[in-house]
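Project channel, design review

CF: Before we commit to the Crotalaria pallida constructs, I'd like one complete example in the thread so the newer folks can see what an input/output pair looks like. Taking Cytochrome b5 heme-binding domain-containing protein.
RD: sounds good, go ahead.
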Amino acid sequence: MVLLVALALLLGLLLALLLLIPRQHKSGHKGKSHSSLNNSDKASKSFSKTEVSLHNKREDCWIIIKNKVYDVTSYVEEHPGGDAILAHAGDDSTEGFFGPQHATRVFDMIEDFYIGDLEQ
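CF: and here is what came back for Cytochrome b5 heme-binding domain-containing protein:
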């Protein structure tokens, strides 16, 4: 009987660990963005404002924040502010990003979506 209880506790602990360990999924904010650029690739990639402006839809959404380009397509559906993220799709979102509605965690999250710099 003691062995059965110990086995049940061990299985419960393993199950709890499996549920608590973060898993990477399609959403970009819990992992890296869909691109598999490494840091050296990111540093050398740049986009024109015209190129960014072509990515202005729910299914293809890039934004600019402080002259950095982010592909937030995978986050659009999860954005707590709903479609507000689309207000500046394909354009500069710096002002909205730094608005009072955002918690400080967005400053860490946004780096997962970084794909390059805006050409000057």
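RD: helpful, thanks. Residues 2-20 form the longest helix (19 residues).
CF: The radius of gyration is 20 Å.
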